[in-house]
Structure formats: C-alpha cells, structure tokens
Amino acid sequence: MAYSIDLSGRVAFVTGASSGLGAQFARTLSNAGAAVVLASRRVDRLKDLRSQIEGEGGDAHVIELDVTDVDSIKSAVAHAETEVGSIDILINNSGVSTTQRIQDVSEDDFDRMFNTNVRGAFFMAQEVGKRMLARAQGAAPGSYTGGRIVNIASMAGLRVLPKIGVYAMSKAAVVQMTKAMALEWGKHGINVNAICPGYIDTEINHHHWKTEQGKKLMQMLPRKRVGQAKDLDTLLVMLCANESHFINGAVISADDGFGV
Questions:
Q1: pTM above 0.85, yes or no
Q2: Where are the domains of the chain?
Q3: Active site residues
Q4: How many degrees, rounded to 5, is the angle at CA 182 between CA 178 and CA 184?
Q5: Class of CATH domain 11-254
C-alpha cells in the first residue's frame, strides 16, 4: 500500500527562494500540493521560478523580502496573507556565508552573517509565529490552526569546520532558536524543527567541486560525494506534513554521515 503526504490547502512561505535550496524547497512543496509564496530580494528570479511552478500546474506567488529589514519582513508576511491566505508553513531558509580565517573576519562580515542567518531568521519566524498563535488562540481567522516552521540550519551548527567559524556560530544559534520556539509554541500546535544539511551541490558552489580544493574536500566526506538539493525533499515534506504532529524541536542532520 503506497503512502503519500498531501499538503493541498496549505500555504507555504519560503524565504531565499530565488536559487539553490530555497528554489528546490518551493518546487517540492508545490509538488506536494501546497500553494507556495516565493520570497527573496531577487524578484526577477522569483518570477522565473513562479512560471516554472505554474507551468507544472502549481500555485505560486512572488513577494519581495529582505530578511535583514524587520519592516520588510512584516510587509511581506502581511502581503502574502492578503494575497494567498494564512501561512501554514514557513521554510526559514535565507542565509549567507563567507570562507575566512577567524582573524580575517571584519565587523561587516560578522554583522552580515548574523543579521541574515540569526536576526533575520528570528524575526521572520516571530512574525509568522505570532500569526499562527493568534489563529490557535481564536484571535484571528483561519481554517487551519497550528503550523509548521522549518529552520534551515547547517551541519556546521553542530560541528565547527575551518574557515567558516562565524557561519558555524550563526547556525548554532539557529539550532538553539529552533528549540526555544518549539518549547514555547508547541502547546499551540506549532511545530518548529531544524534541518542541518551537509555539503550540497547548488548553483552557488557548483564550480567549487571541480577545483583542486573542492576535490580534496570531497575525499574527506564519508562517501566521497556531495548531496543534491533534491536529497532533502523527503525530510522537508515530512516535517511540513500534518502527520508530523509528534515531531517538535527536532534538529535533524542530513549530511550523509559527515557529523557521525
């Protein structure tokens, strides 16, 4: 007997949806039946993704969003709920990184990573979470109470790696943020979990795996390979499903065993 997860009737808001994991997450949730809100600063790329999703029979909407600006977050969430309906699922995916030794990290570098990866992720989840709480408490309309928030952390948040120390610090904060939100919001039916991806081949780093340094790194990995964005599909959909009501505060590694 086949088992399937159906997200029909749900609205999923995906940050950082213009490329890489975010774009894949949006396509995956659309394929599972959700209406997807595509959010990032690069609106032209979002429009291209919307066309792809709609061409496959999905329902997609474009919203401009800068997660480093709290006013932009509030405006984007309000716009999305006006246009599409109450947000049932948040994929908190926006993130940035640099490759630097600790002694070379500037104040601007540090602020950029923490403003996006931690502050942006926090206020994005807070804004959506407040609306989920209002529905759960009967203070706001909505056909579905509770919700699913999936924070995209990193294996680096669990295992520090050379030359990405500040990035690792920021993702460790996302891990703790996930647990704190799960603890406070779980009783209202809002499940907050984190995915910690390992090395994934995306358009941003694709060239790196063909360099000498990239090949050397790949040889250090347990199965001497990097993942593909689609390798996270099943985990993502499972965490967003109605059936995942007993999974809350989980921090799940999807790193091909690198953190073992």
A1: yes
A2: 11-254
A3: 167
A4: 120
A5: alpha beta
